[in-house]
Here is the input.
Amino acid sequence: QVQLVESGGGLVQPGGSLRLSCAASGSIFRINAMAWYRQSPGKQRELVAAVTSGGRTNYADSVKGRFTISRDNAKNTVYLQMNSLKAEDTAVYYCNANIDSDYSRLGIYYWGKGTLVTVSS
Here is the structure.
């Protein structure tokens, strides 16, 4: 049983900042890659940022220079610092992680339930 729980979403004005957190819990042996996705109604879910177990990062072109992904392995947590937010950043943000459990090494992908970010004045 592995769970991902996001937090930190909310309403923010354009140009503002938010920090999202995603904490993994349960029978975890190892967390491999972690990532943030986002989705607006009627649109495709897109990868926003990803970070490997070694700390290598990747970002969508639309957020480069504004968002920063990081992880705290001791806390099984990944963060997304979002600066200079724009209206088009409005979406439900989902945490994703590839995790090996205590009893298997299957590299299963888990999803959080999402947290809503609304950028509006």
In short: The two ends are 40 Å apart (CA to CA). The mean pLDDT is 96.
